[in-house]
């Protein structure tokens, strides 16, 4: 498709929402305080002494625009892409999603509707419904996103990074102290999540939410490719300096993030898988370090492929819906399956059966500047649990009620 100069792409922008009134419970024994303070002070000094070589906003724009020029030479089938793997008694559909969308976007196709209708089982990245899953959010996501060693967010940032992050947080009407207990990766996803939801993006309109509601009503069964703990690992196990870089670049580009997601959706709606791969779903994607690319995409895709292979042993129809970044680029799930000798049909699609996809989604974004040239730090495929479970938690926290007691259990 022909991309506008302002286009930018962040497949499945990481979502969490500001927990401005929340503070984590502390279980450090008082008699360990002196030793802990000493260790914390040493850690803080080490963090602040790390030399940083940050890219400017202009540099990030240049990198992205170079990739954008290459991506603009390709196009998709005119609708979100879908693939199919089949044998004599099994059909497996693969569909890439965006985890939150504007409510008025029309994107469904007749092919999509038929695949959902015929599916016996729906497979998502992670279980979001069981009591065990909800409990795991507190232990395997929420608590792991908080400093547990006495350090704070501002203590691990150097002066330049703290100034950039503070300025970004201020634009949301939230003081940086409200995020001071967050580790850098948690602060990063909270920043962009709050910005996008404030701009009108709705997690209830995202691909998985739509699919899940219909599947539950139809009595379909569900399967999952990973646990909440495994999803959290993708960010939490990144080296801290890489987390800080992620936070810095998120803060630098925060004001542009709604436009970025609008243009992501435009690209996704066209089904331009090659363009998506060119921009971000590859080792040289804009803003990626090798460690982040391996953690957020490659390792997870490698873990999913054997599970998809095993699904061929059960007759019937299965519909797999995962973040679109996992199905694009040289290390995609589709590429890995093809490399193992499987025949994968697609990507294919058609124009929506009810109406055409909006041709200029970005026109709905507030504060857009069509003469701007934007870039984005591509944080690929955020855990869907940040949307489904943390949304009500954030609303609770923002109301001034403090941290619910079950968080500290």
Poorly predicted segments: 1-51, 351-383, 385-409
| SSE string | HHEEHEHHHHHEHHHHHEHEHH
Calculate the mean pLDDT score and round it: 75
- The geometry reads as globular
| Tally of strands | 6
Q: Count structural domains.
A: 1
Strand order of the main beta sheet, please?
4-3-5-2-1-6
Major beta-sheet overview: 6 strands, mixed
Question: Separation of termini?
Answer: 50 Å
- Class by SSE composition: alpha/beta
Number of helices: 16
Q: Per DSSP, what share of the residues sits in E-state strands of 2 or more residues?
A: 5-15%
Q: Level of helix content?
A: 40-55%
Radius of gyration: 21 Å
What does this structure look like?
This protein is an alpha/beta fold and 409 residues long. The protein has one domain. The chain contains 16 helices and six strands. It has helices spanning 33-49, 57-71, 110-118, 131-142, 153-156, 159-171, 184-198, 207-217, 228-236, 240-252, 257-270, 273-279, 290-311, 333-339, 385-388, 390-401, and strands spanning 82-86, 90-97, 121-126, 221-226, 316-323, 344-348. It has a six-stranded mixed β-sheet, sandwiched between helices. A hairpin with a 3-residue loop joins strand 1 and strand 2 (90-97). Helix 7 runs parallel beside helix 10. The longest helix is centred in the last third of the chain and has 22 residues, at 290-311. It is globular, with a radius of gyration of 21 Å. The model is unreliable at 1-51, 351-383 and 385-409 (pLDDT under 50).
């Amino acid at each position: 498709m022909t991309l506008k100069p302002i286009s930018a792409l962040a497949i499945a922008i990481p979502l969490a929402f500001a927990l401005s009134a929340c503070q984590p419970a502390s279980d450090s024994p008082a008699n360990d305080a002196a030793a802990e303070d000493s260790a914390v002070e040493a850690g803080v000094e080490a963090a602040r002494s790390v030399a940083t070589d940050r890219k400017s906003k202009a540099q990030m724009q240049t990198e992205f625009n170079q990739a954008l020029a290459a991506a603009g030479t390709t196009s998709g089938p005119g609708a979100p892409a879908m693939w199919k793997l089949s044998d004599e008694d099994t059909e497996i559909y693969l569909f890439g999603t965006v985890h939150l969308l504007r409510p008025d976007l029309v994107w469904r196709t007749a092919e999509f509707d038929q695949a959902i209708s015929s599916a016996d089982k729906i497979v998502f990245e992670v279980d979001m419904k069981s009591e065990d899953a909800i409990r795991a959010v507190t232990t395997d996501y929420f608590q792991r996103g908080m400093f547990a060693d006495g350090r704070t967010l501002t203590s691990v940032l150097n002066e330049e990074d703290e100034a950039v992050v503070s300025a970004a947080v201020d634009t949301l009407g939230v003081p940086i102290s409200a995020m001071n207990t967050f580790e850098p990766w948690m602060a990063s996803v909270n920043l962009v999540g709050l910005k996008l939801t404030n701009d009108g993006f709705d997690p209830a309109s995202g691909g998985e939410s739509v699919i899940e509601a219909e599947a539950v009503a139809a009595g379909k069964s569900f399967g999952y490719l990973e646990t909440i703990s495994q999803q959290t690992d993708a960010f939490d196990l990144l080296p801290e300096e890489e987390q800080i870089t992620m936070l810095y670049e998120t803060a630098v580009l925060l004001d542009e993030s709604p436009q970025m997601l609008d243009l992501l959706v435009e690209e996704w709606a066209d089904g331009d898988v090659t363009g998506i791969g060119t921009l971000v779903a590859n080792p040289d994607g804009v803003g990626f370090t090798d460690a982040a690319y391996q953690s957020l995409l490659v390792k997870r895709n490698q873990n999913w492929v054997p599970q998809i292979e095993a699904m061929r042993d059960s007759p019937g129809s299965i519909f797999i819906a995962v973040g679109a970044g996992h199905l694009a680029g040289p290390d995609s799930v589709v590429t890995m399956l093809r490399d193992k000798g499987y025949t994968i049909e697609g990507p294919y699609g058609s124009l929506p059966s009810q109406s055409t996809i909006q041709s200029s989604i970005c026109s709905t974004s507030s504060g857009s500047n069509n003469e701007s040239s934007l870039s984005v730090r591509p944080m690929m495929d955020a855990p869907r649990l940040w949307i489904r479970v943390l949304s009500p938690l954030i609303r609770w926290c923002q109301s001034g009620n403090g941290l619910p007691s079950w968080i500290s259990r």
